[in-house]
Amino acid sequence: MIILGSTGSIGVNALKIAKRFDLSIETLVAGTSIDLLNEQIAEFRPERVVVANENDISKVNHPNVTAGTSAIIKAVEESSSQVVVNALVGFLGLAPTITAIKQGKTVALANKESLVVAGEFLDISKIIPIDSEHFGLWYLQNDKKISSMTITASGGSFRDYSHVELENVTVAQALNHPNWSMGSKITIDSATMTNKLFELLEAKWLFDTTKLDAIIETKSIIHALVNFKDGSTTAHIATPNMQLPIAYALLGKVEEEIVPIIDLCKVGSLEFRKIQTSKYPIWELKDDLLSNPHKGVIVNAANEVGVYRFLKGEIGFLDIAKTTIKSYEKFINVKPSNIHDVFAIDKEVKKFAWQI
Q1: Which of the four CATH numbers 3.20.20.70, 3.40.50.720, 3.40.630.10, 1.10.3900.10 does domain 2-129 have?
Q2: What is the CA radius of gyration of the chain?
């Protein structure tokens, strides 16, 4: 297989599944964690490697190393593997998704932005989601008529903070997730609830429905719920470990324990909370965005700028959502007609967001 983002948490877990089930790795694509990449190269012996920066090529212990965005595209095109694990972060992940689909490959997708910004232009039949929430929704499907679907959120780093307290939070506080350790971008997106907004958009394209919502479940063991027409609800409960959805995506069928069964007596109790716009102002866009999913490119572009500026100390935490909402209002009548428009709109929105 091809793994895009091999040194991130998704990539690392994908390689654990590959090792466990003796799956071969043809191509590794990584960012700047060169030491970890070299360890992966020594263990899995890929045919080619791609890194983010040309300056890092000499540090990689492999004879076939290239660098940059175009090199990623070329690697996807030239690799014979029919499965691409796309765990890249941000808009950067869209072009490889498009390329893989054009090549007839199956995409095990963790790059949310691909569906968020361009879902209507992608062949969904070639995509297998490896987010735990979408895996949970898929897992719960059966022949009964579905009324609606619900995914869960952890609430992020500031779920117990008041709106006033959020005005002066630091980057270090924002990156201190209560339930797990992730990359900085997704951790910030979790704290603002933008991540969950993205996942609702993904679910819209994956399951062809807008009857979607999200709630906070503080222990992160319930990942999704399906509400049926008969009034019943089923929930997908599992240890929060990405190896389970990755295993299904890569193997198709799983008949052995991937994660330990949860002991509900040890869990004791569960807590659910409504997502309040007073704490998560980005949530005010939810209904309009689900009705107009083409606007996902606007939300993603503005959010990428906002998160980057916050991590650099240029704006406050609450300014991330303000940047997105102002951009959304500015470009509210913009609608891409094709994939080329998506790239153009992304560029234009980012230009505007930098000026806010």
Answers
A1: 3.40.50.720
A2: 20
Angle, alpha carbons 232-236-242 (nearest 5°): 165
Dist. CA 315–CA 329, nearest whole Å:
20
Give the C-alpha distances (Å, rounded to integers) separating 47 from 17, 28, 36, 38, 68. 19, 8, 17, 13, 17
Report whether 151 contacts 212 (CB < 8 A). yes
CA 160 to the chain's CA centroid:
24
**Exposed, middle or buried by CB within 10 Å (0-12, 13-18, 19+), for 211?**
middle
What is the enclosing helix (H) or strand (E) of 234?
Answer: strand 233-237
Alpha carbon distance 340, 344 (integer Å): 6
Contact between 238 and 223 (Cβ < 8 Å): yes
H or E stretch covering 173: helix 171-174
Q: What residues contact residue 211 under an 8 Å CB cut-off, 6+ apart?
A: 146, 147, 148, 149
What pTM, to 2 d.p., does this model score? Answer: 0.94
Q: Could you list the mean pLDDT of each consecutive 10-residue stretch along the chain, which spans 356 residues? A: 96 97 97 97 98 96 96 96 96 96 97 96 96 95 92 93 89 80 85 96 96 96 96 96 95 94 96 95 97 97 97 95 98 96 98 96
- Ordered by start, the domain boundaries in the chain are 2-129, 133-159+186-275
> How confident is the model at residue 163, as a pLDDT?
84
